[in-house]
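Entry type: protein chain
Record version: 2
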Amino acid sequence: MKGKGTAASTAWLVTGAGGMLGRDVLAELTAAPGTEVTGLTRGELDITDPRAVRAAVAAHQVVVNCAAWTDVDGAEADEAAATAVNGTAVRNLAHACAGTGAVLLHISTDYVLPGDPGRPAAEDAPTGPLNAYGRGKLLGERMVAELLPRTGYTIRTAWLYGTHGRSFVATMLELARSRPTVDVVADQYGQPTSSAALARQVAVLGRTALAGRAPAGIYHGTAAGHTTWFGLAREVYRLSGLDPARLCPVGSAAFPRPAVRPAYGVLGHAGWARAGVSRQPGWRDQLAAALKTPRFAESAAAARAAALTLMAE
């Protein structure tokens, strides 16, 4: 859906509009009165192309950057390519927004932080990426801060899942259909976050920014509370009518990966008070709502049906 905006409306641009979060942001914005939205997929806009970015940003008051290299392990093998999208290309967007006065809402990640255990990391906590993906995303954050000190907003999120695309929640339901037991990592902590909940928060932040009530800077867009991957899997099973006893807790060493993950990716949310924007609901409430959507409800029903055969074997 595309629009340039009028005196009575606000024109938004969503990059990466074909991805999980991009599709939810697009849906959230198009449902709002007085909002005209241009959603561009990766195939429609290459954010590494400065000229294309300038043309796309023109005549929009708000840009939401959901475009990203999301293959965390793949970034270890080709850091330059990942950083070109997650870091350098963000400069193109920030520069274009600086030229037109547009607000930029840039989606980042908890992986820019080292994940020191103890207490949730504040928005101003020292950064220290543990992997190539995090280093590229940190460069993107710095581009926003440098070029848009008054109109640039970085929203860090983590453990994202939704009804579009692949996610941990979807994978757990898929495995429930084919395996009687499933090993799940129990020594990494984070905040499972619904892409729909994040999309709502991003939309509110953008409107608040346009009204001049939200200070520029970093915001943590994750669900309240925290758990482990094992804890999340147990809740997925419980809410889906599956037996959580089929899940087996294991350490991270059981699933060696090219990219090191933070052991404690838990974020604080104090920054939202500055903007007068509500924090997200708790992760359990978000998950319960997500599992009622058709995609997850149908997958859960298929898993329950398969369980009768799996447990009889």
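Comment: The domain at 10-162+193-224+266-281 is CATH 3.40.50.720 (Rossmann fold).
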